[in-house]
Amino acid sequence: MRKTLLCLLLAFGSQLPAPAQPAPKSATALPPAWAQKVVWYQIFVERFANGDPSNDPKPENMRGSFTVPAGWSITPWTHNWYQPEPWATAAKLNFNDTRSLRRFGGDLQGVLDKLDYLRELGVTALYLNPINDAPSLHKYDARSYHHVDVTFGPDPVGDNKLIASENPNDPASWKWTSADRLFLKLVAEAHKRNMRVVLDYSWNHTGVEFWAWQDIVRKQQQSAFKDWYDITRFDDPKTAANEFDYNGWVGLKSLPEIKKVDITTPRKAGKPYEGELNSGAQAHIFAVTKRWLAPDGNAAQGIDGYRLDVADQVPMGFWRKYRTFVKSVKPEAYLVGEIWWETWPDKLMNPVPYTSGDVFDGVMFYQAYRPARSFFAAVKAPLTGPQLIDSLQFQWNRLGKPFRYAMMNVASTHDAPRLLTCFYNPGQYKYKATPGDDPNYKTGKPDPETYQRVKLYLLHQFTSIGAPQIWNGDELGMWGADDPDCRKPLWWPGLTFEPETRTNFQPTTTSTFDPVGYNAAHYAYYRQLAHLRNGNPVLQTGELTFLPTKGQTLAYQRTAVQERIVVLFNLEGSPQQFTLPEKGSWLNLLTGKTVVASTATLPTLSGMALKKVK
């Protein structure tokens, strides 16, 4: 029925009506206005840029959670990604064992050094993967929530001494380390460049080095924090065995779960459920949240929001309280949740329970990327234009308009294959997306057709509803499979990288190595699209209406008062003619040329953005 109705409406160039939404109870029930206007750039600090080699991680920064092999050292930034380091070879580690031990030395100074680059690219909002103090490269195993990782700042040794002087459960005793202060400087410098800053946190679990967890390990039932975690059994001191046991996130003992309480509905991964967090842990989380939103009570100097990890694992009662608290500190803060798989790898979660005014302002909108990939990429079961429209309208029209426009439109991230590689492989999205899972998964340099198809998707991403997101390095032309290959050190211009082993887990085919490095043309295209969106507010807030097409073609227009931009795509195997909404003068936003026309003909595998000239 939904598809039939859609076809009838498309015949008249219409769009499906948005569902009725209840009137918001307050301004803070809506996303902040800035969220629909930004171009997001996601930064994984450890692999972004090494601005200060003097703070590079040492084995003592990793110990506790990792057994560091003899002879371990920082991996050179330009190292062949698939080549084992001497310490890995000596320890007889395979690639998967090595990946968690590698460090390349990225830090906050590296981010500061690249702020002008990001501004020139057209970025207006930064989303930083966790920077909280932690032994891992990804930092989701927090050792401390309220401090920046010591190896991201200028004085790791001094910062550790300062941290040791605090009572971590007493916010009044918290101090600002050199890493903390460098991050606050980064926030200030970003704000000077009109960029927002959002931090990534997991309130679902910590690492085993977290101060409260370590207190429990030492004191067991006598610990003041024994109720903070989901502990199933304490050690019996009367026996020689250690009976201590607990639940970790998805069974990982390295990530002990914060305890959920007062659960009133079934808890199932991929589904929202009702409940709360332990009150002690919640109080600490709120204190940490306020510390970064309003350092020393000054919200103007704080961050602009939070990205919340594995949000489906945390109960809805806590999330509602969390939103209320965050908005009381900073009403314009943006909250974006990671809700992803209801049933992997087939069914994505429903964002509606999380984006109805009482939880988040947006989610990482994989729900829009997956069908778009199936239209723009050469996948095994491609969507037609009308099928893509059907999928997008289904996602958009179950959301209230403010939330629809405030979505973070992700494509690739730290948890998914890079965009080029995702398009290069024709299989199901994020399924067997590493060479370890599928020896035939292609991890080398994509072919020219893949680059062209990615360019078409990007034109869609930057002209569609929601705020586009760039995973750091995609704009540099980087490729890579799912984690860990999506987390390579960035290919900055001016650096000379060792050729990358193409064969890795695969049988040798046509070549052994791929040259890697900065792709200037790819960067220029990203920059063009980001500036195109920033310079045309209609692409940020205008209405989107699909125009009649068929087969592997797609057309839509973005309209506002006296503004109109038409976007066209042809993925058919032959040139296609499109009828424009009206005859007149149209500026081709990609070429800068103006034509007077009522139709446009596009070659195969091409796209066009036309702006009506007054």
Automatic annotation (TrEMBL):
Gene3D superfamilies: Glycosidases, Golgi alpha-mannosidase II. Residues 42-533 form the Glycosyl hydrolase family 13 catalytic domain. Keywords: Glycosidase, Hydrolase, Signal. It comes from the Bacteria. GO terms for molecular function: hydrolase activity. Residues 1-20 form the signal peptide. This is Glycoside hydrolase family 13 protein. It comes from Hymenobacter lucidus. The lineage of its organism: Bacteria, Pseudomonadati, Bacteroidota, Cytophagia, Cytophagales.
